[in-house]
Amino acid sequence: MASQKITKRQYTHYLEMIIKLLKNLDNSGNQRLGKIIFDNIIKGNEYAQFDQNIIISLRGYYLEIDHVLKDKQSTFEVELSKL
Fold it and tell me: Which of 25, 49, 70, 80 is most open to solvent, judged by the fewest CB atoms within 10 Å of its CB?
């Protein structure tokens, strides 16, 4: 997840875009698809275990996103809290 060509601000922006997508999926009753997207964010492939380095980075970037996007009941926060 660490690239020399992408800044922390860009990672945060991309995460905000993903959070908005997942929020829209939650609101439309499509949490299952949201969970699949989340799983693909934290794993290298379908059968892999989650990568702890990705989780650490993801939590750090999540602290930086706009507070308006954060929701304790969202698929993203629920799944992240399980790790």
Answer: 49
